[in-house]
Amino acid sequence: MTTTQLTDRNRHMVTATIANGQTTSEEIQTNGYAALGVLMPGAFTGTSLTLLQSFDGTTWTAVYDSDGGQVSISVAASRFIVLDPSTMAPLTRFKVVSGSSEAAERSLTFLMAEV
Q: Is this model's pTM higher than 0.85 or not?
C-alpha cells in the first residue's frame, strides 16, 4: 500500500496492488478516512469488485449491505468509480476482490477523505 498526500489536507490517495494471477488486493488501512472513489488501471481484467473487511488485520469477512446483499461494485478498465460513503466509512481495513484473476500485477488507486 502506497499513500500520496494531495494538496487538500483532508484527502489523499492510497494505491493497493493485486498480484499477478490473484484476485485479492493487499490490505488498505483507512486510518480515519473513507474511500470515496477508485481509479481502475488500464488493463484490469475483472468486471466487479467485492470487499473484505477486518478489525484486527487477521480475520477477514465479506462486506454486506443493510439489505443482506454482498457489496459488489461494477468496474471496468481506465475508469474512476465513485464509491458509496455509507458503505466505505465504517471500514477500518479492507481488501478488494476482483471477480477474475488478474493476468498481471494491477494497482488500484483509492481517493480517501476524512469521515
A: yes
